[in-house]
Amino acid sequence: MLIDVQGVGYQVMVSTRTRAALPARGETASLLTELQVREDHWSLFGFIDRAERDWFRTLTTVQGVGGKVALAILSVLAPDQLARAILAQDKASLARADGVGPKLAARLATELKDKAAAHGMAPAAPTGTVISVPPAVADLVGPAEDAVSALVNLGYRRPEALGAVATAQRKLGDGAALGELIRAGLKEIAS
């Protein structure tokens, strides 16, 4: 895309998701941007929202994923779908993007599993559903925050603890006591 900023044109690469969300030609739009500087080229990437930009940054930390491949992935999978695919180890969904073969899809699923939880998604429940949870324990309040901490201290991984407590809290309600959340969270992990 060519973006006009007070008379100066900038070539910005965007995902199909961002392109579809932008207004018609000539109308005002706002994009979050990321500049990648390489030895032979500067590339400007644009994003319609913070989630897409954050995933772009995360994807480009994986060896073999440059800016264009990251945009191809984000064109095929929205940020929440990408997190679900990574947590479910769905390599076929990841491989749908141009430039992503089976080996790269496997690397993405393996290397980004913990980072997907940090982007606000919990592991898939046994039924195949994915539970959206706050991105950090600091965002949880009261007993839920303490329950996640207790499960982590018991040796469970943070994404697993977040997903279990989120499910338990959904089932028990917001007024659930700490002990109830811990017991229900342990049951969720065991099931």
Automatic annotation (TrEMBL):
InterPro entries: DNA_helicase_Holl-junc_RuvA_I, Hlx-hairpin-Hlx_DNA-bd_motif, NA-bd_OB-fold, RuvA, RuvA_2-like, RuvA_C, RuvA_C_sf. It comes from the Bacteria. It is found in: Cytoplasm. One of its GO terms (biological process) is DNA recombination. Residues 57-76, 92-111 form the Helix-hairpin-helix DNA-binding motif class domain. It holds the Pfam family HHH_5. GO terms for molecular function: ATP binding; four-way junction DNA binding; four-way junction helicase activity. Belongs to the RuvA family. Homotetramer. Forms an RuvA(8)-RuvB(12)-Holliday junction (HJ) complex. HJ DNA is sandwiched between 2 RuvA tetramers; dsDNA enters through RuvA and exits via RuvB. An RuvB hexamer assembles on each DNA strand where it exits the tetramer. Each RuvB hexamer is contacted by two RuvA subunits (via domain III) on 2 adjacent RuvB subunits; this complex drives branch migration. In the full resolvosome a probable DNA-RuvA(4)-RuvB(12)-RuvC(2) complex forms which resolves the HJ. Has three domains with a flexible linker between the domains II and III and assumes an 'L' shape. Domain III is highly mobile and contacts RuvB. The RuvA-RuvB-RuvC complex processes Holliday junction (HJ) DNA during genetic recombination and DNA repair, while the RuvA-RuvB complex plays an important role in the rescue of blocked DNA replication forks via replication fork reversal (RFR). RuvA specifically binds to HJ cruciform DNA, conferring on it an open structure. The RuvB hexamer acts as an ATP-dependent pump, pulling dsDNA into and through the RuvAB complex. HJ branch migration allows RuvC to scan DNA until it finds its consensus sequence, where it cleaves and resolves the cruciform DNA. This is Holliday junction branch migration complex subunit RuvA. It comes from Aliidongia dinghuensis.
